[in-house]
Every structure is written in C-alpha cells, then in structure tokens.
Design a protein that fits this description.
By secondary structure, the protein is α+β, with helices and mostly antiparallel strands. The chain has a single domain, classed as Lipocalin, CATH 2.40.128. Helices cover 20% and strands 39% of the residues. It has 2 helices and 10 strands; from the N terminus they run ααββββββββββ. The strands form 2 sheets. It has a 5-stranded antiparallel sheet, with helices on one face. The protein has a 5-stranded antiparallel sheet with strand order 2-3-4-5-6, with no helix packed on it. The chain is globular, with a radius of gyration of 18 Å. The N and C termini lie far apart (51 Å).
Length: 152
C-alpha cells in the first residue's frame, strides 16, 4: 500500500469515526445549561440586516459604561466567525475559531453579556452557545447545545 493510499484510507476512517461519534463535545443538559439558554432567551436580539449580496450581516456597537470605549460586533449569516473590536484596540477579536462551516445563527446582548449562537456543519452538525463579558473582555462560558432547546 502506497503512502497516498494509506493517507486517504486514514482520512476516510477518521471522518467516519467523527461522523459516528458526533465529535468530542456532547450536549450536557444540567442546571447551568438551562440557565444559559434561559438567559439567552431573555437577552435583546440583534437581527442581521440584509445586504446586496446573498447574506445578511450583524454590525452594531455597544458602549462600555463609564468610558469612551465602544465595542463593534460584526458577523455575516454565512460561513464565518463573529468578531468584536474595541475602539482602543487595533485588531478584531474572533469569538470562536472557524471550523466545519461555522455559521452564526443569532446574536443577543444584555448590559454586560454578548450571546453568540452558531452552528458547525460539514461532516456532522454541532450547535454552540457562547457567553462573552464584553465589558471585561473575557469569555464566560461556551456550551454545545441542542438546536431544539434554543428559542426560535
């Protein structure tokens, strides 16, 4: 067996195992999971705005209380990542790593938390909910979620 045939066989086997196993992160429905989804449900939704292209985009700003700093939140409803940029920084901060056709589904906010709900779908489908403390510039938590548990 040549090296290229071994590589292809190994790749196919790893894809099959990943598809059957559903990836490494599983949905764990505990108290914190339900509390995060309930908080997401109560947060203010930001709707994407239609663009001339096929996708729509999120593009809005938040004001950090007690300062002149603003936070720009940007994403498109196509394979991409949600990014934020603080007005006192020079670079965007991606809120998650792009993989397997990551597509933002919903973005919501409270006075301190940015909620990002996205899916990853290539060989298998996974949905995620991230909570980010936008005032203190840190991720709070991320959960693998069941889309059936998320508000419509």
């Amino acid at each position: 067996m040549t090296n290229s045939v071994r590589w292809v066989a190994g790749f196919v086997a790893s894809v099959a195992v990943s598809a059957v196993a559903g990836g490494c992160a599983q949905v764990t429905r505990n108290t914190e999971y339900h509390a995060a989804i309930d908080s997401f449900r109560r947060a203010v939704p930001h709707e994407p705005v239609a663009r001339a292209e096929l996708s729509a985009e999120w593009n809005f700003q938040l004001q950090v209380p007690g300062s002149d700093v603003t936070v720009s939140v940007r994403a498109i409803d196509a394979p991409s990542v949600v990014t934020i940029r603080y007005s006192d920084e020079n670079a965007d901060r991606p809120l998650y790593k792009y993989r397997d056709y990551s597509i933002p589904v919903a973005i919501r906010t409270t006075d301190q938390v940015l909620y990002v709900y996205w899916t990853e779908a290539l060989f298998s489908s996974h949905s995620w909910l991230l909570t980010y403390d936008w005032q203190h510039r840190r991720e709070i938590q991320r959960w693998r979620v069941d889309p059936n548990d998320m508000p419509k």
